[in-house]
Structures are given as structure tokens and as C-alpha cells.
Amino acid sequence: MPLKINAVYAGDDQVELTHGPSGSRLLTDLPVDNGGRGRTFSPTDLAAASVASCVLSIMAKLAAREGIKFEGASIEIEKHMQEGPRRIARLAGVVKLPPGITPLQREKLMACVKACPVSRSLHPDVALELTAV
């Protein structure tokens, strides 16, 4: 079933997004490097955040299924832009797994990076480099 998101230009370089099913709202702003003020997430920031959120969510599902304690896991992701054309060139980051993860569990959890529907939706020219610690 399709999901609707409503986007309204709120003025002052900001767009208000409303999640159809829940009514949750958030604002985006133009980033400083593109003439904005960077007061909140930019659209490309949301793309990077979506990858991190998706990967952690898929990992959490796997961890629950396999009985792996996963609370406290995190991802710190960096978005690298390029010009001509302006686009995301690279997403790089570190996945911090909870202590006590075995090498086999680490391997299974890191396979979730490629299983994430968001990362699989990225253009192949966007480099995705996540490493685990």
C-alpha cells in the first residue's frame, strides 16, 4: 500500500513534511553550503539519516530473532556532497555494536547494511562505507 507524505513550502527556505499515517511533522532547511542557514535537517541529511535508521532497524530485527542483546547499538554517519551535479557522493560511518558480539554475529549484523531497502535504493554511484567497531 502506498504511503503519503505531504510537503508544504513554509517559507524562509523551510519545508514542512507531514507523515500521512501518523501526522508526525518535521521541517527541513537548506544547508549552509547551499545558501541556507542549516537550522535543521536538509533533504540530503534525511537521506543519510534514513540509511542509518534503516540499517539499525534491520539489525535490531535480526538481533531479536537471534537472541542478540542489541540495545545501545548506534551509527554515526557522515554525508559527503559533490558538485556538478550537486548530489550525495558518499555516505561513510561507523556502526557501534554492543559489547559481547561474536565475530559470527558481527558478520550477520553487518550483512544488514546491504539488506536495508534505503541503501538498496541509492544510486550505484553513491558510495556507502559503514564499518563496525
Topology:
Elements: E1 5-11, E2 14-19, E3 25-29, H1 43-66, E4 74-82, E5 87-96, H2 103-115, H3 117-121, E6 127-132
Parallel strand pairs: 5-6
Antiparallel strand pairs: 1-2, 2-3, 4-5
Helix pairs in contact: 1-2
Q: From the coordinates shown, what is the CATH architecture of the largest domain?
A: 2-Layer Sandwich
Number of strands: 6
Q: Please provide the ordered H/E string of secondary-structure elements.
A: EEEHEEHHE
What is the end-to-end distance?
A: 37 Å
* Beta-strand residue percentage: 25-35%
Name the shape in a single word. Answer: globular
What would the CATH topology of the largest domain be?
A: GMP Synthetase, Chain A, domain 3
Number of helices: 3
Percent of residues in helices: 25-40%
Q: Low-confidence parts, pLDDT < 50 over ≥5 residues?
A: none
Quick one: biggest sheet?
A: 3 strands, antiparallel
Explain how this protein is built.
It is a single chain. The protein has 133 residues and is an alpha+beta fold. It folds into 2 domains: 5-34, no CATH class; 44-132, GMP Synthetase, Chain A, domain 3 (2-Layer Sandwich), CATH 3.30.300. The chain contains 3 helices and 6 strands. The strands form 2 sheets. Strands 1-2-3 form a 3-stranded antiparallel beta sheet, with no helix packed on it. Strands 4-5-6 form a 3-stranded mixed beta sheet, with helices on one face. The longest helix is centred in the middle third of the chain and has 24 residues, at 43-66. The model has no long low-confidence stretch (mean pLDDT 95).
